[in-house]
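From the shared-data thread, chain only:
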Amino acid sequence: MTQKSQDSLDRNDIVELCTRFGWLFDQQNWSALAELFTDQVVAGSPGEQFTVPRQQLVDDWSAQVGRARSIHRQITDHLVEADADGTATCAAKYQLRLVGSAVDRDPRVETSGHYRFDLRRTGDGWRIAGITDTVLWRSGDAAVAARPGGEAQQVARTFLAAVAARDLDAAFACLADDVVMDMPLAPPGAPTRLVGDQVRTLYTGVAAVMKEIDLPVVRSEAFADPQWALVEYLSKMVLPNGADYTNHYYGMFQVVDGKITVLRELYDTYAYAEQVPAEMRFAPSEGEA
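Structure, as tokens:
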């Protein structure tokens, strides 16, 4: 096969992949949609990028449109650039029309913008490794289609992903200035309550000393109060001494105006005490920043 023929095949495959993204999203076929992505995906807007597991990204989208009655998206004008190293980009325009379930306001939302897809050739064909959404204009309130508690779940997941990536700017952007973190089951020597800058100091220390950090989300659920979300996640870390720290966490997040105001964290106290040396059970003093 000539290089020109291969380039043409690659372009067709990439255009179909990006088009399939729109079809599966609009059909809310979340399991099939996840298969279009690499394991880790860089997503967001031009000014706010974050790296998340593909399932978390799809779960966040599901929460955003969980009450949509209709989603219709047109993706057009694909511009593909493929490189010899097995990577490619595809820029495409889109127009999205969505009808939510709100009865107290106009349920219609229209958005126009363009996507940048970053793609990678894998053993299973081309996959989307990154997606950047540039919104040019929007009419309507996107919240009309969100599941109750959807914003709280999304903010909580974004926070955990940013901590795992050691992206403290992105993590702290999710926190209210006076955020309260409660850990009622903490063993001796570990903090049971942190407030404001104490919370940021804790995570700054974790990011600085841990050799590896992974906080995969198992599941998230909404409470009846849409400001609250329950997130079940794992801690898979490597301590400075090279030992593993693994635990199972349940976090109750309160999110107000897009910021985490309360985080109540429950975990296996015995596993924590057995694996984390006493000198690492960081507890900042009252008022310490």
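The helical segments are 3-26, 30-34, 54-64, 150-164, 168-172, 197-209, 269-275.
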